[in-house]
């Protein structure tokens, strides 16, 4: 594909020959079908995570969702999993619940794509909802790992792409690939959408974008990435032709993606009669930190920094503002580093668009780690160093951070204020 060349077969052969002598176990691993390698990596990582979850469940006390020492499937369906279960059972309220005159937490914050799929799995398998949710999430997780490999192979060498899959599967928030959360389905759809974008299969994006827009709320971010892609292709059309058919398709899909990103808020507005039903519902989750407020784009991170530094830590509020500014600057610089540039302009457009989206609307708290999952293409950058010591050490660090995330965010300790 113009602009996104994959390594040539000759390069692949040289890499394999250099890394592993013929006949060794490593050589056989390198020469096995890519999909088999990805499946084995995913299964192994899920076994490790399952052990972690079972250990944590064995010491879990009574909580708002389960009794003490819950079984795996019940433990996997707590937190937002219960909200998705509520959507499955009761749908969405036509009247918004109020607390002190403000919209309270309710099901409109949870889009219908994932619970609809879980319902289908439950109907086909006759499994209880928590079991069906784990089956659906795990299947989407495997699909995401397979597509992620193919996505990176458009830009990176086989061993780098495969090691990136290892990092993808053992990442600190990778337990979500087997929990009753929509992230697994969304990451699969997002990886597929990015893959189609890099291949310039614009019309194929429409069904993917449609389902994605009703799975997780980042359709506007993807529309922005598409818009940047269109502008870039037009700017470089002298060296990389941008034929009329591609112009029509890419612009049409960009507009469609933007409309799809607004579809769920519009649905909530129509059903409830409140034009701000969706945003007011989302804002109710941050009310426990800063009270009920209106959404003012590009202020939540600064509001959050003020709360964390001045209230939670007892430090001057200006330190929070400085920290946010530094994080923004570091992220911008990161996007222009040589290693990130190797991912190609389309993945960088997505990283920029999603970063801008988070900055505009997200209030930083314990869910921040989960909300960072869509920047998974950066794992390709972490996978580039070829040192075996580095690669083994990074996997160990990721597994340790995974355990830490489960302890802090998934395990429930009384009136827990660290939701995943």
From TrEMBL:
It is found in: Endoplasmic reticulum membrane. The keyword DNA damage does not apply. The chain crosses the membrane at residues 34-57, 129-149, 156-173, 179-197, 248-271, 308-335, 347-363, 392-413. GO terms for biological process: GPI anchor biosynthetic process. One of its GO terms (molecular function) is alpha-1,6-mannosyltransferase activity. Keywords: Endoplasmic reticulum, Glycosyltransferase, GPI-anchor biosynthesis, Membrane, Transferase, Transmembrane, Transmembrane helix. Signal peptide: none annotated. This is Integral membrane protein.
């Amino acid at each position: 594909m113009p602009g996104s060349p994959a390594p040539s077969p000759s390069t692949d052969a040289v890499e394999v020959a250099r890394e592993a002598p013929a006949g060794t176990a490593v050589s056989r691993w390198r020469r096995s079908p890519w999909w088999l390698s990805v499946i084995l990596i995913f299964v192994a990582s899920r076994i490790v995570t399952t052990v972690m979850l079972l250990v944590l469940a064995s010491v879990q006390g009574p909580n708002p969702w389960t009794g003490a020492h819950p079984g795996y499937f019940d433990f996997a369906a707590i937190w937002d999993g219960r909200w998705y279960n509520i959507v499955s059972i009761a749908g969405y309220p036509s009247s918004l619940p109020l607390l002190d005159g403000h919209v309270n937490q309710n099901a409109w914050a949870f889009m219908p794509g994932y619970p609809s799929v879980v319902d289908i799995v439950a109907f086909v398998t006759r499994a209880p909802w928590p079991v069906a949710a784990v089956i659906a999430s795990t299947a989407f997780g495997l699909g995401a790992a397979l597509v992620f490999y193919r996505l990176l192979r458009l830009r990176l060498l086989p061993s780098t792409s495969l090691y990136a899959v290892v990092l993808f599967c053992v990442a600190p928030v990778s337990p979500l690939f087997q929990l009753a959360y929509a992230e697994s389905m969304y990451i699969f759809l997002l990886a597929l959408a990015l893959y189609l974008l890099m291949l310039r299969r614009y019309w194929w994006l429409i069904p993917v974008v449609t389902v994605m827009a009703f799975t997780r709320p980042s359709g506007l971010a993807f529309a922005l990435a598409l818009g940047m892609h269109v502008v870039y292709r037009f700017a470089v059309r002298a060296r990389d032709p941008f034929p009329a058919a591609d112009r029509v398709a890419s612009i049409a899909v960009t507009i469609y993606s933007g409309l799809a990103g607004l579809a769920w808020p519009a649905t909530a507005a129509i059903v409830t009669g409140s034009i701000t039903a969706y945003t007011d519902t989302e804002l109710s989750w941050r009310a426990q930190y800063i009270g009920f407020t209106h959404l003012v784009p590009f202020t939540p991170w600064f509001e959050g920094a003020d709360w964390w530094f001045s209230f939670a830590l007892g430090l001057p509020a200006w330190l929070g503002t400085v920290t946010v500014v530094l994080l923004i600057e570091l992220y911008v610089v990161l996007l222009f580093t040589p290693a990130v540039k190797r991912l190609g302009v389309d993945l960088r457009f997505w990283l920029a668009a999603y970063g801008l989206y988070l900055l505009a609307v997200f209030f930083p708290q314990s869910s921040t780690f989960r909300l960072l999952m869509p920047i998974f293409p950066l794992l390709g950058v972490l996978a580039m160093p070829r040192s075996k010591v580095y690669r083994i050490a990074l996997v160990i660090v990721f597994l340790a951070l995974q355990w830490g995330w489960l302890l802090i965010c998934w395990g429930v300790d009384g009136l827990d204020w660290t939701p995943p």
